[in-house]
Write a structure and sequence with these properties.
Length: 246
């Protein structure tokens, strides 16, 4: 069965809501949760996720909040922290690893830490039983794809197009998927521009999809109550999970 990874922004619209939404998504069939660490300059994210990041920061989000609520979520769903390298650097990777282990979090997604620059940190992370998710993009050479794929753990994050999340661009990924599969049996999940309308097409040939902006758009809708927001994102999750597996 193909997997669904869901991204939500920690602390938006509130910390309690994040826990409720995460548990509801787990019940709706989400396999892995990306808990986004709010950051003031999320360079890989489009305007939807950027807006949620800024609102969470305005609401007073602190890293300790991430650690606290992850302990409530991680026992119920495979959980990864998605964040930019700046907080990891300033807090210290060893400290992040310790906090992740304590909370039951299984790894990190750090979009602005390239494969080459991640090498000093990978042994630390993997020796603790955690994963650092590797990215492959359509612009990567076959040589680089082979190098990244050979070391990848848990899953490979295949970026659907060059750019930022949530813009809905489309590229034919079958060639690059074939290249990746030549080098590794590690699952390949495609992200960027995946929603309930595009998931079935984008899931062709891969092992799962990563969805963020489609969920966060619902959370940004101030006309909805918290219960309506949770109903909205769980309906999207169920629809995507069904579409990628039929």
């Amino acid at each position: 069965m193909k997997k669904l990874v869901a991204y939500i922004t920690t602390g938006f619209p509130s910390l309690d809501f994040t826990v409720d939404a995460a548990l509801a998504l787990a019940e709706a069939g989400v396999d892995t949760l990306e808990l986004g660490m709010p950051f003031s300059d999320p360079v890989a994210d489009g305007p939807v996720i950027e807006a949620a990041n800024l609102k969470a920061l305005q609401n007073g989000f602190k890293l300790d909040h991430l650690f606290d609520i992850s302990a409530k979520i991680a026992p119920h769903i495979d959980t990864l922290w998605m964040g930019y390298f700046n907080p990891f650097y300033h807090r210290g990777m060893e400290n992040f690893i310790a906090e992740a282990k304590q909370a039951g979090v299984n790894g990190f997604i750090i979009p602005d830490l390239p494969y080459e620059e991640a090498q000093p940190y990978k042994p630390l992370i993997e020796s603790a039983g955690l994963s650092l998710i590797d990215f492959i993009a359509p612009t990567d050479s076959r040589e680089r794809i082979g190098e990244i794929a050979a070391e990848a753990r848990k899953f490979i994050y295949l970026v659907a197009y060059a750019g930022i999340t949530g813009t809905g661009k489309s590229e034919d990924l079958q060639g690059i998927v074939s290249d990746i599969k030549r080098f590794t049996d590690t699952p390949v999940y495609v992200g960027f521009g995946v929603d309930q309308h595009t998931a079935k097409e984008k899931a062709k040939g891969v092992d799962g999809v990563i969805v963020g902006s489609a969920f966060v758009k619902v959370l940004l809708d101030d006309s909805l109550s918290d219960m309506q927001k949770i109903a909205g994102i769980t309906a999207i999750a169920k629809e995507i999970k069904e579409k990628i597996n039929t």
